[in-house]
């Protein structure tokens, strides 16, 4: 067998053993299964629930019908199928969740790496800035930002990203502090490498697993936050998300009317997706940190 | 051909720790010419590694440097960061101690060698790769191993790759900081032979830093013994290793059993005590509290490094013996 083939099989084995750990981790595989279902739902939303059926002016059913054979999850106050709304909502909820996470990770990783790597007054300033974001009550800040910046999907994602990065920044900084003292960083410097080279080639690949593990947990928070903001009426008024379904259900008095089919499905979806991400996150934690593994 | 390559003049390096300035290197002069092999020996904390880092301008931020380090026509101590980066590796490269930790664990070793070439030379990636393969071949590593990660190599192999990396940009001077720590004696001999061969082959000057005199016996022509930030004795390797003059060098050499002398077997003489705290140097000769031969002026007058015959030594005893 050639060296390349040996190497390839070795790598496949390494991947298999990590994948095996994940599969054997019951929590992780349950979380993953939940997420796959929701991601598929979001990807095929337009097929499963064509947008035409969500038209406000010619809704297919009567208002606030309980679940029936035609509308599995009943209808809303305009006569639209709640199932269709929930399916369409998954798209927006996941999209905002991922986008917000990307923004949050970008800021968090950047601030953490720069603060940890350069140290000194850069570190002091960036970390006090981080502390400032950490101590500010999150929801009021998000509400103020959303109110000032207007109401669109991107703004919501931005608001969530801007308010969730400090945790990541702290964790990444701590790791960078230990990484930059490693001999291979000194060796890279002796090689004549500049700061950009060292950060890009040596620090970043080493903090990446940490950033990745953090990402999964932040996605859950971001989706929950999107629902919160939409529920408070700060979401994009032109798109349907789980939070905005809850908002209109609440506004239409679904609770007092006993229209549980309007409230429960979006709420359950939020809980399931957040649960799925959290379970995956814990499973990854266990794989990346062998000390957490149960014998 | 035998031009001056590296000239260190009255180099002093201070580390500031909690407001106290402690000299780690305290007035060192050294001269290296093209193709020279100089060994720098001394116990832990005597300033050997600090000296090496000063040559590359790699000292940590809490260090202050006085004096001069000239590499060819360039003053290293006051050089701007850009020029320093150009000097590093292309002018002076370094073989680090503990080759395991000197490699980034998540990157392939070949790529790390290629990185060195690409940083300094305007060559294509494929050209750098083919040079990396040649270097691997030269240091005795199969080039097909270039795609492996550091943890897949043994200690000796990693040190070979480290040497390949040090040669990547054909530097005229290679500093080897404890090149053979944590290697067994066989591998140690192989690595040292490799260094000696490459020096011969490429006319590289070597500065070997170690606490192990047997290493110097193999690779160095000249040896300088350091104690408490200063050079206390300097001379040709054979002389220092066989007839050391300074009491400190004597106890260093005496700490090794002599092969073929049954009397010395199993009873290497140790030297009691610890090197002085750089922040609190003893008055007079820094070595006098531990010196078995200390006499009257040693605790008052600091001896200067003077020529006595073929050696340079900083010791009142050596001076007195030379007079009589």
Q: What do these coordinates show?
A:
- The complex is a heterodimer of chains A (295) and B (324).
- With 295 residues, chain A is an all-alpha fold.
- Helix content of chain A is 76%, strand content 0%.
- Chain A has 12 helices and no strands.
- Chain A has helices at 3-24, 26-43, 45-48, 82-118, 120-135, 138-149, 153-179, 183-190, 195-231, 242-251, 254-257, 260-288.
- In chain A, helix 2 (26-43) packs across helix 12 and helix 4 runs antiparallel to helix 9 (195-231).
- Chain A starts with a helix and ends in a 7-residue tail after the last helix.
- Chain B has 324 residues and is α/β, with parallel strands linked by helices.
- Chain B is 31% helix and 24% strand.
- Chain B has helices at residues 48-55, 81-87, 109-120, 125-138, 155-167, 185-202, 213-219, 237-242, 247-254, 316-323, and strands at residues 4-17, 20-33, 37-41, 63-71, 74-75, 92-95, 173-177, 205-210, 222-227, 230-236, 306-308, 311-313.
- In chain B, strand 7, helix 6 (185-202) and strand 8 form a beta-alpha-beta unit.
- In chain B, helix 4 packs across helix 5.
- The radius of gyration of chain B is 21 Å and the shape is globular.
- The relative contact order of chain B is 0.14.
- The model of chain B has no long low-confidence stretch (mean pLDDT 87).
- Chains A and B meet through helix 1, helix 8 and helix 9 of A and helix 2 and helix 3 of B.
